[in-house]
């Protein structure tokens, strides 16, 4: 994945930096609270205070849901054209504050400004809004034979509860709210406890163009999230996060039969076929695995490489890794950042240490980068591991990639399918048709050929098995946040 951010001269960077810092502080001041009222949020790169997030309660959530219920009929009555116009205005508003949002995101989440990171994420937010606003959704005529005319249309489901993660907090929130708003729903957003300020800031920008109470942000703890999933006023829950939490949401939502879209954990496999040129795929392999420092649901998390090119692929990956600077996100030279939180750092460290004890060969990295800060872990490539090793079987969600040797393609496919997850996968090979034949045998919601993890606002995306269910993006994504209705006559 290439960096979509234009290169600025030193002078332009200095001017933009000064201006954006003032705008960033203004956005932050608009959503944060006083220290005695809020919860402190720190920059994972250096431990510096970012701000104080509101501590909303379940009572605050109840009031938000009531307000969203009251606002929903009027929002739906505006019709697709007017709602789409407002979403396009919201996209313009995000673009107007893009640098300030990116800086706040970088400070709170840890990801660098450049590369496929903070500026990239904010740009994706406006792109997804514009796409959701522009997709046509025409009535589907089922039968029209002169005697019977029946057509299928889609109406708003009501109030959507959107529960977001900390890894791509702005972009995934937009994935949830853009189609929901387009279809006439109102939305109550509960961001991750780790990254609430940047999400609330983005919502405040969007709400400058929306009617009151159409989009409401609630910053709270797990109790608030659990209440949102079980709230009788919520008609649809959208959640991105772990499989374990997804199961709890399913249980919590049973009482009111809320519809669900769940994008849950993954442990994406990649298979490199014999005859593939390692140098030709190395950079795409790298970003497939290590985008956002590996903290991506659909990142490449276990790589199966044919014995004939095994060492060459590892060497090519290591060369790319050596060229990628890691450090604080606001440093314009970095493209890799810290782990976002201590819990995730400890998971990555534990899995790498376990791989060492089971014979894993550390090619790059392998121990915390304490010289950079408390939560930095370097790009770690681990060779000579096998299925059954914790680093292979568990989702690491960080910058550690196990590379597993195979000799028979059937065995690699069986390995890819052996776990109870199926969000994404990839097949790499010079013969695209051969790669497609392998792809069709992999149990995964998406299988990429000669790339990994790229998403498009028009291409449906969702998981199978323990990776959840429901589709996002494109026409299918609009239908997923609506209810079908047959007009017969």
Automatic annotation (TrEMBL):
Q: Does the keyword Oxidoreductase apply?
A: yes
Output compositional bias ranges, type Polar residues: 1-20
Which interval of the chain is the signal sequence? Answer: none
Does the keyword section mention Oxidoreductase? yes
Q: Which PROSITE patterns match?
A: ALDEHYDE_DEHYDR_CYS (PS00070), ALDEHYDE_DEHYDR_GLU (PS00687)
Q: Name one Pfam family in it.
A: Aldedh
- Which branch of life, at top level? Bacteria
InterPro entries linked: Ald_DH/histidinol_DH (IPR016161), Ald_DH_C (IPR016163), Ald_DH_CS_CYS (IPR016160), Ald_DH_CS_GLU (IPR029510), Ald_DH_N (IPR016162), Aldehyde_DH_dom (IPR015590), LUC3-like (IPR044086)
The residues forming a coiled coil are: none
- Which residue range or ranges hold the Aldehyde dehydrogenase domain? 40-481
Keywords, A to Z, come to: Oxidoreductase
Catalytic residues as annotated in Swiss-Prot or TrEMBL: 263
UniProt region (Disordered), positions on chain: 1-25
PANTHER family in the record, alphabetically? ALDEHYDE DEHYDROGENASE-RELATED
Family of this protein: Belongs to the aldehyde dehydrogenase family.
Protein name (database record): Aldehyde dehydrogenase family protein
Provenance organism:
Microbacterium aoyamense
